[in-house]
Specification:
The structure is a homodimer.
Chain A: E1 3-6, E2 13-16, E3 58-60, E4 71-75, E5 91-93, E6 96-100, E7 104-109, H1 123-140, E8 148-155, E9 167-173, H2 178-194, H3 198-209, E10 213-216, E11 220-223, E12 234-238, H4 253-271, E13 276-281, E14 296-301, H5 308-313, E15 316-318, H6 322-338
Antiparallel strand pairs in A: 1-2, 1-6, 3-4, 4-7, 5-6, 7-9, 8-9, 8-13, 10-11, 11-12, 12-14, 13-14
Chain lengths: ~350, ~350
């Protein structure tokens, strides 16, 4: 079992998980989909190799166990956190605090196809992945020890992934991560001050000038944020105010799948299959019904290395302006628009 | 001129510096020193190429301008921040805040030798680099617009460096970086609560059991921190309580040079010339005389990529225990010890 330790000087928690050192690494250059085989006999996520992963906790299609799977969710074989036990117990030795590494660390295998990244999937397949995300989110939040659930995706070696087969991960922790703690505090403070949601106000302000808007559909806005940390950082924000990804109406997941796939496809085209990290930012499990937060998706291409200054200070240096990259993304999105896939209609 | 923009959802500042996109990149595999030439005609930091950098703001030896230089400090040609102008002016447009990119961004060229990294320098040369650090720190802090000065070093491509010639950087900002803001708040809160310095207490506790101590000299303790974010993360903490690197007595810089060089040499040996980031954590310029903070050096080897989870959440997953890596580092340090370079004497 791993352990969580808190740095007394920053109050940040670190997961110490020596077991993870043993995980396999497929360290080859990231290739475009057409250069990869659709099936790799050595890949634990490929069809026929299901016995190389721990037992499924979810699959699609749900009903017919005999049918070939379309999406599988399995515990991470080299889990940073594991279920069971008391996540609230803290051992203190004067300045040092630690707790057992309770929680969950799961892998969402997005497709049986070894060489179909999300940017190239069908809308239907992306929707199935989103259904799996939401299903696991809503199942895990029922565990009282779990305070916080992050769903994320690392694509490409520069993003820190160790396997090429399209997959996402879910980590559920008994603590709130420091980055999110700050984000929640700020959103909560704004709500207390203004009586309104910070993200709803942000959307309204962004839509007025539409300088950084990439696309705008009935339910979603895609934009390059004002203080983008990296070139082509892209946020997908639902227009409907909703604190938790778990509570977002599932009838909108089909539209989200279209928006997400088209966004990733445009990044794939413009940046030639870039490495990226994708994160779903959602509120803490006990505050799902509270009005202050607004879930959204962040996509951060990893074309530059995070250097000492960024790492040490938390100040990022970005060499491009979001107003300029948004224009380039809009051009790409517009070409999809013509075939009716996504609409770009900045307001006013 | 670049600009600083604040993300309204995290209050983090980003430096938008399109000029930096033009900087040169020497993207070859990081080679061991013996595989590199000692002089590279295309390197802007090599002897004879001084006209490829902006004019020196500091040099050693100081006095004889005709003598060959040993250390040079120059403004970064692709500076993220520039001096002059009013750093306190904030332009607000409802949720969005920006200010001019006022400050300084300098390069410390550590040696004329293209292929002598700090791990392989003489103690005397490392001391000269430290003298240059302190000199620039103390000069820039006099600028009233500058609130915070970070000195850091990126070694190896995986650390985000773009040039191989041994160099460090200094960034002086009109804002306090969010990571440090948190660290200062915590140290200040501890001082208010306990009437003591958090770092002095941390050193006392670490020295008692000595599980994570790598080396211990008259003035410095080298340790692997309790909640290490990465394998072989190493801190060098002065035993003397002092908030600011700028106010640290210069008579101790020779000892710091020995400790720093030997620490980097052991990392070089054990991890085969790893990429790393080195940061000097020092208080904000206006609080130099205040008792709550304690300057120190952090060295973070970059053997794994920072992935989506770490980047999104601020929770790092480390697959090694600092107690185990400290033992391995101690073995290496002890071998130096025999030749009298560093002493390891954990207390009782």
């Amino acid at each position: 079992m791993s352990e969580l330790r808190q740095d007394p000087t920053t109050k940040a928690w670190v997961i110490l998980a020596p077991e993870r050192a043993k995980r396999p690494q497929q360290r080859q250059k990231m290739r475009r989909a057409e250069e990869l085989p659709s099936w790799d006999p050595t890949c634990p996520f490929c069809l026929g190799n299901e016995d190389q992963t721990p037992a499924e906790v979810f699959r699609l299609p749900v009903v017919d166990k005999g049918s070939p799977w379309e999406v599988r969710v399995v515990p991470n074989r080299f889990a940073a956190l594991e279920p069971g036990g008391d996540g609230t117990m803290i051992e203190e030795e004067r300045l040092f605090r630690k707790r057992a590494g309770i929680g969950a660390h799961e892998v969402i295998i997005e497709t049986p196809s070894h060489n179909t990244p999300m940017a190239l999937m069908t809308y239907e397949q992306v929707e199935k992945v989103l259904i799996a995300y939401q299903e696991r989110y809503n199942t895990l939040k029922k565990n009282g020890h779990i305070k916080f659930i992050t769903i994320f995706k690392n694509h490409g070696w520069a993003s820190g992934t160790s396997l090429v087969h399209p997959h996402s991960q879910l980590v559920a922790t008994p603590i709130v991560a420091p980055y999110y703690h700050r984000e929640f505090d700020i959103a909560h403070g704004y709500y207390v001050d203004m009586g309104r949601c910070l993200y709803c106000d942000l959307l309204a302000q962004e839509l007025e000038k539409a300088e950084r808007i990439v696309a705008h559909t009935e339910q979603f806005v895609v934009l390059h944020p004002y203080a983008s940390r990296a070139p082509y950082e892209t946020w997908i924000i639902p227009q409907m105010h909703c604190a938790s990804f778990g509570l977002f109406p599932d009838m909108y997941l089909a539209e989200l799948a279209r928006v997400l796939k088209d966004t990733l496809f445009c990044l794939y085209q413009r940046l030639d299959n870039p490495a990226f990290n994708l994160m779903i930012d959602s509120t803490i499990t006990e505050d799902e019904e509270d009005p202050y937060y607004h879930w959204h998706i962040r996509i951060i291409p990893r074309q530059t290395t995070i250097a000492g200054f960024e790492m040490g200070s938390g100040i990022y240096i970005n060499t491009t302006l979001p107003e300029e990259t948004a224009v380039l993304m809009r051009e790409c999105v517009s070409s999809l628009c013509e075939v009716g896939r996504i609409s770009v209609e900045p307001e006013a």
